Amino acid sequence: MLRLFRPYRGRLAVVGLLVGASSLVSVASPFMLREILDTAIPEGRTGLLSLLVIGMIATAVMTGVFGVLQTLISTTVGQRVMHDLRTAVYAQLQRMPLAFFTRTRTGEVQSRIANDIGGMQATVTSTATSLVSNLTAVIATVVAMLALDWRLTVVSLLLLPLFVWISRRVGRERKRITTQRQKQMAAMAATVTESLSVSGILLGRTMGRADSLTRAFEEESDRLVDLEVRSSMAGRWRMATIGIVMAAMPALLYWAAGLALGTGGPAISIGTLVAFVSLQQGLFRPAVSLLSTGVQMQTSLALFQRIFEYLDLRVDITEPAEPVHLDKIAGDVRLESVDFAYDPAQRRPTLDGVDVTVPAGGSLAVVGPTGSGKSTLGYLVPRLYDVTGGRVTLDGVDVRDLAFDTLARAVGVVSQETYLFHASVADNLRFAKPDATAEEIEAAARAAHIHDHIASLPDGYDTLVGERGYRFSGGEKQRLAIARTILRDPPVLILDEATSALDTATEHAVQRAIDALSEGRTTITIAHRLSTVRDADQIVVLDAGRIAERGTHEELLERGGRYAALVRRDAGARAGTGPDGGPDVVVGEPEPRAGAVTAGGGPGHDRRP
Questions:
Q1: What is d(CA 296, CA 290) in angstroms, rounded to the nearest whole number?
Q2: How far apart are CA 486 and CA 94, in angstroms?
Q3: Which positions ≥6 away from 485 have C-beta within 8 Å?
Q4: Which ranges constitute the DSSP H helices of 431-473?
Q5: Rounded to whole angstroms, how far apart are CA atoms 51 and 38?
Q6: Global pTM value
Q7: 144-166 pLDDT, tens digit each
Q8: CA proximity to 249, closest of 157, 146, 163
């Protein structure tokens, strides 16, 4: 925690000087008050009285000025520390592998950045200054009290150890409750994020679960109310006891002074007694504040712990110390004896001994049943995951040795789940190339066969796409994603089931955009439903992470193996006679032989998409 403040040592040193000066100035007032009561007023020395009054006023002014400057600098430092923390957590999350986000709720991540760091604001903004300020004030006040009368000082400090012990107990209790409270806030934030998104609203309403979702949120909120009350009240009676005792201390001091006088001890002057009580009351505020700061720091430890859990996460995918930068990228992709497992304890790896070569400008289609490892294979090329065995190379260089910017420039990904920001069409496209001109954006949209639709909108390229692009249809979103990739112009393209969720007419429009995008690029197509599989230079059939077959469309059909079975199953499914009544993998059929009877009808009937 202390290392967070290291870059601001100079400003903190200035705060320390201001705190010290303010403490020294503030303890001077009681001594001037003693002189007023014991000397200036009894002896009628109006000149001395005027000087002492002016001194007390000047002391108040200086203390106020020092306090304002101290607050300004300390608040600035605190906010900069919070900025550094937010940025560090965000940057750390940007480096985390894709697997981290598949197992972490979005609301949980948002809560760590917003609620946990926001909850530390008071601590990082004022705690350090408050600690130094109050500690200095306490030390200066105790020294001044000893200078006035050591006996009264002993009476004033008798209960201090008890107060420290109470505050530590309270701090530990609040830390425990705060940990529970932040977890509950994260759970509630996750519920809001999931259920109040466009997809969540659609699901809730179409399933008739709006009321049950509201009740679930009400229960989450009710648990948070209980934790907030417990956090606020934790140790409140014990801290109130400290306040009562400290407030009653002047009466004890008067009583002690009276006893000393009644038993024949050394007399304490009225000025000394009033000055001492003034100091003791001055000690009350920083002492209680110091104890409260201790409690607050204990509470903040729970928040820091949650933040450091993210900052301490191991980053699996890192850029090498001396990364390779490629100026010109041909696009030759090779997977050499590739093994991959999401979990080292996995009984069977997701990919096992995969060897694939896609020459620059070539095309590869990857098909197979669900769970066979198709998408995983595609994600290894842009290094969304790292292989656990073998290697993936781009132009002969292991992708793990490439600079991140080179890899991002080289490989473009278009997936089934198209993500669009809640921004204009132009801003969504420009995300791929921030300095793109309006002409370049329009050219990319034309190539993706989406320009005419955008131009027909009232605001054209300034049209807001809505949350996750819900103002556009699935096919339109896919074409926007393709236009975005065209604008980036990567030499290697990964198409991850880009048309599997589209109807036939929309698929045709998107396929035209894909054809434009794929031209002249190294293309790896992962597909359940592909009308262009037959046109790929090479088709690989995956089964349980291993390559079951490979070859061209015609070669695999002649072989009569798994690929041919998929073709037959597809033909039967489209004719309504498939085993599950629906297509699993849609690939192009071969031209039927003359006189052959196809699954769709009489001789020579061609049912290709």
A1: 10
A2: 24
A3: 412, 413, 414, 432, 493, 517
A4: 438-447, 451-456
A5: 15
A6: 0.62
A7: 778 877 777 777 777 677 776 77
A8: 157
